[in-house]
Amino acid sequence: MKCRKCQNKASIHMRQHKLALCKEHYLEWIPEQTEKFIKKYQMFTHEENILVAVSGGKDSLSLWDILVRLGYKADGVYLGLGIDEDINYSHESQRLCEKFAAEKNLKLHVVDIEKEYGQSIPMLAQSSHRGYGKPCAVCGLAKRHEMNRVARDLGYDVLATGHNLDDEAAVLFGNTLSWASEFLLRQGPVLPEKNGLARKVKPLCRFYEREMTAYALLSGIEYIYEECPFAEGSKSIFYKETLNQLETVRPGAKLIFYLGFLEARKSGELFIEKNVEAGVLHDCPKCGQPTSTPDFCSFCRMIEKANVEA
Ligand code: SF4
Ligand code: ZN
Q: How confident is the model at residue 2 (pLDDT cuts 50, 70, 90)?
C-alpha cells in the first residue's frame, strides 16, 4: 500500500476513509483534520486559553501535542486519583504527563485528590453509596468537579478532553439503548459554558481510537499502555467491543453512527430541547460551583461524608 500523497510506503491504511498515508504525511494529516474540526464546531480560537485534561494516556497527550503544534495556547491539568493498588497506575500516569510537559516546555497543573481533600478515589468509593463496588461513579464526579474548578479558578476559556470516536460512539450506544434523552442532548463535540460550568470541547471526537494510537506511536509520545485497573469489565468496554465487531463487517459504521446522530440532533429531528432545560442552579456554599440543590454540591457532600467517617 502506498501513501496517497507521496507514493512512499504507507504506515497506516484507514479503510473507512479509503486513505493510506506514510508516517510523515500522517503526522501532518491528523493536526490538519483536528484544525478543521475545531473550526467546524467552533470550539475555540487562537486567542483563547485552553486547558487540556491529561491522563497520561495516548489520546489526551496526543491532543495536547496537536494543539501545541497548531499554535494554540494550551496548558495541561493532571488529576491524581490515587489509584495505585496493583500497577501504580496513578503514579506512572503522572510521571508520563510530567515528562511530556517538561520535554516540550509546557505548563502542567497537578491536582492530587488525596492531598487536596484527604481522600483518594478508592477511599472515597468505600465510604460512598455511589460506588456499588466500583469507584467509577465517584471518580467521574471528582473529575468533573475538579477539572471545572481548575479551569474556572485559573481563568481558562475552555476545557479540552481527549475523547476519541470510539469513546463517543460507545457513550452514544449506551445512551441510545436506554433512550437517555437528557444525556443524548448533552453529548457532542462542544458543551457551551453555562451557569458557572466551563465550556468543554472534544477536538478528537471524529478520530478512531486506532488512528490516535498510530499518531501517538508515530510521533514518539510515551504514554501509559495500561488501562485503569477499574476499567476492566466496564459497560463502556463491552460497548466498544460490540461496535468493533460491527465496524469489522461495515467499515465506517462507528463514524456514520456518531455523525448521523450529531446531524439529527442539530436539525432538531430527534428531541425537543425544551424538555431538558436545566433547572435552577445554586452556588455550592462550600466550593462555589453550581449545584441543583441549595445545599452543598454532591462532590462537597461526598468529601464531607468521607472525612466524617474516616
Ligand atoms: Fe476512574 Fe478508573 Fe473508573 Fe475511569 S475506570 S472512571 S479512571 S476509576
Ligand atoms: Zn461544592
A: very high
Number of domains in the chain: 1
| pLDDT given for residue 36 in this prediction | 98
pTM: 0.92
Provide the domain limits for residue 69.
32-279
> Residue 13: inside a domain, yes or no?
no
Does residue 8 lie in a domain region?
Answer: no
Ligand 1: residue whose CA is nearest its atom 8: 136
In a domain, 18, yes or no: no
Residue type, 150: V
User: Could you give the angle at the alpha carbon of 146 between the alpha carbons of 140 and 151, nearest 5°?
Assistant: 125
Q: How far apart are CA 226 and CA 58, in angstroms?
A: 11
Can you read off the three cell numbers belonging to residue 260?
A: 448521523
CATH number for the domain harbouring residue 250:
3.40.50.620
SS3 116: helix
The number of the ligand 1 atom at minimal distance from the alpha carbon of 228 is: 2
In the chain the beta strands, taken as DSSP E runs, fall at: 12-14, 19-21, 49-54, 73-80, 108-112, 158-160, 190-191, 199-201, 282-283, 290-291
**Euclidean distance between CA atoms 199 and 49, whole angstroms:** 12
Pocket of ligand 1 (CB under 6 A): 135-136, 139-140, 228, 230-231
- Measuring from atom 7 of ligand 1, which residue has the nearest CA? 228
